[in-house]
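INFO  loader      accepted 1 record
INFO  loader      residues=328
INFO  predictor   begin
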Amino acid sequence: MVQPSIGVVLVQLGTPDAPEPQAVRRFLREFLSDRRVVDLPRWFWLPLLHGVILPKRSPRSAALYRKIWREDGLSPLLHHSQAVTAGVTAQLGATIRVALAMRYGQPGLAEILHTMTDAGIQRILIVPLFPQYSCATNATITDAVCAAFVQRRFQPALRFAPPFASDPGYIAALADTIRAARGKNPPRHWLFSFHGLPQRFVDQGDPYADQCAETARLLAKELHLEEDQWRLGYQSRFGREPWLLPDTARLLRELPNQGVDELAVVCPGFAADCLETLEEIAVQGEEIFRQAGGRRFLYLPCLNDAPSWIDALGVIVRRELAGWLEEM
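INFO  predictor   done
INFO  writer      dumping tokens
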């Protein structure tokens, strides 16, 4: 059997282990304790998190997770991410070990990295599965990877794949997935909804908003949409400080009054469907739109484990392994 000499770690944000309050609480505690995600003063934030937010939000979120949880016991995000990992593994062959890790939850990032180095792997490529860069996603993965080796005697050679917001393969895979799901008579108007971010983060130099706008522009072009047919929004707002605008929920309320009674919604910033897409957009979003007078609402699934996405990701991985592959 060939011993892998290179490791590739595909990293997703994470998911609770189960749609139950305690499991959701563990996940949210780890996620919301990260300074990259919430950078408020600890003396203010931690008492609020543990005393108010976690006790109230965990049961509510668990109930929402139960609506989207798969019958096989996996969350949609974990199911699709595992399938993508298997697909990339098949493309790269036996000399490269490919593994899936979660920044928060299981399988843990540090555990995956330690398993690889303990097996003798000396070169590891980290691939965050976030098309657009943000300090709250990509940067926190870098933090966690470096922290995993702080007390280890051996430290491997590390590479971090950059975001792929404008990668032609990613854009083409998005368009292919959308075409396959939209049917023969799709709505004329489209909304590209990305996860939100505090406006302050962008003001301080985070390139996330610019990269979201570039993805939306390229995707609209690939789908042959006119400028008046599509718009961009940001969802999942949390807290009271200003977040990126326009707000997706507000757009869904306002569009019917602007003559848009048929709408297709896509979430290009999510590589796999999850709570924020399947419940927040496909369920709550449709309800908001219809209550405001909308007549037809079409949610288009994320890339998930589409063959075109696995192919595109394989190309990205091989590109980022340039030099290492040639030395094998």
